[in-house]
Amino acid sequence: MSDIAELNAHYGIADAISFNQGGGGLTVVEITHPRARARLALQGAQVLEWTPQDEQPVLWLSPAAHFTAGKAIRGGIPICWPWFGAHPCDAAFPAHGFARTMPWIVERTGANDEHVALRLRLMQGEQSEVFWPHACSLTLELRIGRTLDLDLATHNIGALPVTITEALHAYFNVADLSGVRVHGLHGCNYVDKTDGGRHKRQDGAITFDAETDRIYVGAPGECQLEDPGFRRRIRIVKTGSGSTIVWNPGANKASALSDMAPDGYRRMVCVESGNADDDARLILPGETHCLSVSYATERLG
What we know:
The chain has 301 residues and is mainly beta. 7% of the residues lie in helices and 44% in strands.
């Protein structure tokens, strides 16, 4: 608990930011602000909750999520880095990289009338060097208010180029999957992971009636998730990203997941902003690549 006390002494802000010990002994940051409340875990710098004032929670967190050091947490916004999906060369390496299961440190915090702000940095050491023997620094800037803004920056501080794939793997809370539509990707080509990786083209809005696992390539900078059950639209605006990943496990896969209730798939859908598949990013020595996403809600008429 001494670490918690030190975090509160150095980075806590009265009536805005506090640090606590959460489930499984993980350190959790509690955000309270007139415009929104939120929680995030320092493991993985993972946003677990974001609830704007007078709204339903925007993010979905599985009631059966595992809170264990070194294990992925099902829900919120996990950070997939420095690779998305399976490792391109070694299938024994963890899926979606290691950033989401490693500890991050707090570099600064702040608050004003509009939002609470935090800057976090991934702690790297001998364990991460097994997976990623490159000189990189990864930081996350968050601004939490009526909108939720995330800037994930990869700084190449080494002498050689590096190539990454990545994603902000957002799980959105929905009233019922059957009514959900995702707009903004009409006409985009996508890789259908549920159909052997075949390349297809999106026609109209995305709807959900079975397992969905798609990587949209050349995806535009904005898409919208419409949820008539909660009578809201979630706007997702991104930069530094050419891929949008849309995922829902469907009934069969959900029933096989230990950290999701069998019907949990009906309450969530993932719309992820990233650089995946052929959209890998080459970062030259001394350069920085930033993946930025802004989430906002508005009422449906």
